[in-house]
Each structure stands twice: as structure tokens, then as C-alpha cells.
Design goal:
The chain is of the alpha+beta class and 320 residues long. The protein has twelve helices and 15 strands.
Length: 320
């Protein structure tokens, strides 16, 4: 579950520096007469973990624990399969041994928790259906991530003000995009929670059994609240535009929806006739809605079954 992680330590002793440089095989560099060390050129041959000792004698280690685990097992840096909290803890202990750093006063700054779900659902169709995460009054909306091709990833707002970010994407598409060989004849949806700007969290405290159980519980509590666009049962011969609009009206206020279609009209992407037809429909929504009955989509029920099965499997393995 724990994937990318970044932790750091300040004020390394000369003895610690020598041990880490030797154990991790870091290369030495010079900056205005001050030495610093890192493994940028070789990290992909050693599990993908980036290790750096800066000129101020601070240590930074960053990378995917899941990929590091896979690398130790078969020399590949993949993270498309299962990875439990127990495996994460064991992998960290191996990383500490292979790196040579002391864990005291080492702080976690960033971490991701992810889950791969093998599915029969076409990932693109599922991603189209995903709307938000969270309770209605505190939900975070999902947006198409423009950094990825073919609308293959959705993400909540990633602004610096947000410490928590959610992501859902087509794992097979991502692997192909990164020129990695994916498993054959398999569809995988990956969900991730990104914890940014983590404060006052020490490595040794984070990887206690009780905290790992807590982190896993919170992960599932949040993803239990994944929300999908509703499907609409409407009278025969109802226009597609009204059906699509009714889906939005069940999620947003009438004023927001009115503003949205006005922007389309103003930008010449909607004709004046359609604009006024939809405007009347929105303004009369409280009377119209009785004819537009919301229902959960087939994709939602398929996802619910797959997700709950994977959740149960991980909860059965949490005995650390």
C-alpha cells in the first residue's frame, strides 16, 4: 500500500556520512569546496530509491517502497501488484540495512498510499463515471489530469494549500506510457492518496504496527466515499441534453448550472435556442426533477464489488 515516500534527517555526524556513503555507494561531488553525495546516476539499478547527503549534512531519501520491494525480489521496479503494510515494514528494514542510516530523528515529509484493483471494467469508462470523493458537504471533485494522455487519470486539486490529494488512474496505460512491460490481458485501476507536507512524523513512529493499521483504516474510510455520476431514468423521448443536465443538477446548485450554460452561450459553443430551452429547464428544476429519477450506475455496482473484495483481503492481512 505504501508507495512513494520521502524522509529526511538533519545534522548527520561525520561517522554517519561515511557509513551511508560507503553502504549506499554514493558518488561524491564538490560545490564551492563543500562535498555532497548522491546516487542520481545509479539509483535505477538499485531499486529506484534516491539518496542524497547535502552540503549542510542533511540526508534525504525518496522513492517507492513498493518498487523497491519488487526490485529486491526480481530486479524490476514495478508496483502493479499487491503490497501489504507488513511487506512495507519489512521493506523499510531492508532499506535501512542497505543504506546504512540511523533512524533516530528521521522525519517523514511526504508519502503515498495506493491500491491496485484488477477489473473487468474498461478503465476509461470507470474514469468517466468518477465524480468526487468525500461526504456531500466536504467532497473533493475529481478533474482530468492534463499531464496524462487519453484522459487516463483523474485527480483532486493539487494546490500547495492542500495536504491531501486523491488520484485514480489506468495503471496499465501508465506503465505503457513509462515504457514498462505491463501484465498481459489485465486491466488495473489504481487509487492513491497523497499526503503532502507531512509534519511532526518520525519514521520509527510511522512504521509502528498500530500506526500502520490506523493509516490503512483511514485510507479505506476515505475511499469508501468515492462518488460516481448518477444515471437518470427519464421519460421516453427526453432529449440527451436534458438528461445530462439533470445529472449535473443533482450535484450542483441551479445558479452554478445556469452560470455554466451562460458561459457556453457567451463563448458561442451553444446556440441561443438551446440556451433558452435549458435555462427554462433549470429554472423549473424543482418541478421537473420528479420526472428525472437518479439511480446508481452499473459501473458503480461493479466497482463496489471489486473494491470491497480487495479491501477485505487487505484487512485480513493487517495482522503485523
Amino acid at each position: 500500500m505504501i508507495d512513494k515516500i520521502r524522509f529526511s534527517k538533519k545534522n548527520l555526524s561525520e561517522c554517519e556520512i561515511k557509513k551511508i556513503v560507503l553502504t549506499s555507494r554514493l558518488q561524491s561531488y564538490d560545490a564551492n569546496g563543500l562535498k555532497h553525495y548522491h546516487n542520481q546516476r545509479t539509483k535505477n539499478f538499485n531499486g529506484g530509491m534516491f539518496i542524497k547527503i547535502d552540503t549542510d549534512k542533511s540526508l534525504k531519501i525518496e522513492g517507492s517502497l513498493h518498487k523497491y520491494f519488487t526490485s529486491l525480489r526480481n530486479k524490476k521496479t514495478d508496483n502493479f501488484d499487491s503490497f501489504t503494510m507488513y511487506q512495507a515494514k519489512e521493506t523499510l528494514l531492508k532499506l535501512i540495512e542497505n543504506t546504512g542510516f540511523e533512524t533516530n530523528n528521521t522525519a517523514i515529509n511526504f508519502y503515498e498510499i495506493g491500491l491496485n484493483i484488477i477489473t473487468d471494467i474498461e478503465p476509461k469508462e470507470l474514469l468517466k463515471s468518477v465524480y468526487s470523493i468525500g461526504d456531500f458537504d466536504k467532497e473533493k471533485l475529481f478533474y482530468i489530469d492534463a499531464k496524462f494522455k487519453n484522459e487516463s487519470q483523474k485527480i483532486t486539486e493539487y494546490h500547495k494549500d492542500f495536504r491531501l490529494v486523491y488520484k485514480v488512474y489506468d495503471k496499465i496505460h501508465e506503465m505503457k506510457d513509462n515504457r514498462k512491460e505491463p501484465p498481459k490481458n489485465t486491466k488495473i485501476i489504481r487509487i492513491e492518496t497523497i499526503h503532502k507536507r507531512v509534519e511532526k512524523t518520525f519514521l520509527i513512529d510511522f512504521f509502528t504496527d498500530s500506526n500502520l493499521k490506523r493509516v490503512q483504516r483511514i485510507f479505506f474510510d476515505n475511499w469508501d466515499k468515492l462518488n460516481f455520476f448518477v444515471e437518470i431514468v427519464a421519460p421516453k423521448k427526453t432529449s440527451v441534453s436534458k438528461i445530462e443536465l439533470s445529472k449535473v443538477l443533482y450535484k450542483k446548485s441551479q445558479s452554478d448550472v445556469l452560470n455554466g450554460i451562460f458561459e457556453q452561450y457567451k463563448n458561442n459553443t451553444m446556440s441561443i435556442k438551446i440556451y433558452y430551452t435549458l435555462k427554462r429547464f433549470i429554472e423549473n428544476w424543482e418541478n421537473e426533477k420528479i420526472n428525472f429519477v437518479p439511480t446508481k450506475s452499473l459501473i458503480f455496482y461493479q466497482w463496489e464489488k471489486l473494491y470491497n473484495s480487495e479491501k477485505q483481503s487487505y484487512n485480513n492481512k493487517i495482522n503485523l
